[in-house]
Amino acid sequence: MSDKRLRVAVVGVGRAGALHAKLYHQLPRAELVAVCDTDRSRAEAVAAELHTTALTDYRRLRGLAEAVSIAVPAGRHYAVGSDCLRHGLHVLMEKPLATHLPQADRLVALARRRKLMLQVGHVERFNPAWQAVVSRHGRVRYLEAARISPYPYRGTDVSVVLDVMIHDLDLVLALVPGAVRRIQAVGIPVLSKLPDLANVRLEFANGAVANLTASRVSDESVRKFRVFQEDAYFSLDFVAQTAEMARRDGHAIHRAKLAITRHQPLQEELSHFVDAVLHRRRPLVTGREARAALALALRIEAQLRRRYG
User: Which domains does the chain show, CATH number per domain?
Assistant: First the structure.
C-alpha cells in the first residue's frame, strides 16, 4: 500500500471548518497544510493549535494543497468551490452543494471536466445507524424523519430546509427510487428572516410517502428516522447511533437491536474523502446525488415562498 499522504486544507474555519481541520490533523493519510478564513485572527488561532499555516485568501492554496474542505457560508459555496476546482483542487463541499441549481450543475460539470473529486458533506451517510439499515432495506412504503436542534447562530443565510432538512432529503432519495410527484410544505421564520421550522410531506410516483420535520429553534437535539417497508420496520437514532428492526413472522412481530460499532461520522467522511482522492474511487456522496437533494429542497422552498411570501 502506498504511504502517500494527501495535502489538504480547510477553507472557512468557523465551528464546522475548525472541526474538519482538527480531524484532518489526526488522519494518518492526510497532511493539513493550511487553514483559510477571511477572519485573520480565527485562521491564526486554528493554525496555531494545529501547527499549520494560516491564510486569509483561499486562492493562495494553489500549489500548496491538493484537496480542500469548503466550510464557508452556503451562499459562497459556488464561488469558492468553482475557484478551487479551476485551480486543480479536489473538493469536499459542506452541504448544500450550492444554493441554486445552475450553480450545482456547473460545479458537477467542472469537476467532471477537470477529472477532480467532488464529494458533498451529507454526513449522515456515514452514521453507523444509517449504515446498519441501508444494506437491509427493501421496498420502502413510508418514512418519517425528525431533525430538531437549538438555534445555531450560523448557517442562517439559508432556510432550515437547506440547512437542516436537506440531510433527510438526501437519505430519503437514497432509499426511494423514482420521482417526487407531490409536495405539501408548511414552514415559518421564528428567529431569522427565513423559515426556521418546516414540515414536509412527499409523495413519490411509486406510492411511497415521506413525512419530514425540521427545526432549528428547539431546546433539544433530536435526529430520528423511521423506515416502513412491506415486511419490516426500522427505527434509527442518529444522535445515539442506534437502530432497531421489527420484522413480521406470520402473526408474530420480532424486534431486535441491530449490531452497531459507534464511530464519529465526520471523521469517517473525511477519511473516505482522502481515500477516494488517493485511490481515485467514487465518493459515497457525489455531486450528482447532492444536486438531487438540492433540487428537492429548492422545490420545497419554492412552495413555502408561494404560501407565505
Answer: 6-122+266-285 (3.40.50.720), 124-263+295-308 (3.30.360.10)
Identify which of 65, 57, 70, 79 has the alpha carbon closest to the alpha carbon of residue 31: 65
pLDDT in tens, the chain (309 residues): 467 999 999 999 999 999 999 999 999 999 999 999 999 999 999 999 999 999 999 999 999 999 999 999 999 999 999 999 999 999 999 999 999 999 999 999 999 999 999 999 999 999 999 999 998 878 899 999 999 988 877 656 789 999 999 999 999 999 998 899 999 999 988 888 888 999 999 999 999 999 999 999 988 899 999 999 988 999 999 999 999 999 887 778 889 999 999 999 999 999 999 999 999 999 999 999 999 999 999 999 999 988 876
CA dihedral 105, 111, 117, 123 (to 10 degrees): -20
| H-type alpha helices, 72-180 | 77-86, 101-114, 128-134, 160, 166-175
Burial of residue 144 (number of CB atoms within 10 Å: 0-12, 13-18, 19+): middle
Q: Residues 197, 203, 204, 210: what is their CA dihedral angle, to the nearest 10 degrees?
A: 50
- Name, in order, each residue with C-beta under 8 angstroms of 154's C-beta and a sequence gap of 6 or more: 14, 15
**226 φ, ψ (degrees, to nearest 5):** -130, 140
- Hey, what's the cell of 247? 420484522
* C-alpha cell of residue 86: 479551476
Cβ 15 vs Cβ 73: under 8 Å = no
Residue 186 half-sphere exposure toward CB, CA atoms < 13 A = 2
Q: Which of 197, 195, 162, 185 is nearest to 293 (CA)?
A: 162
Place of cell 410516483: 205
Question: Pairing relation of β-strands 67-70 and 6-11?
Answer: parallel
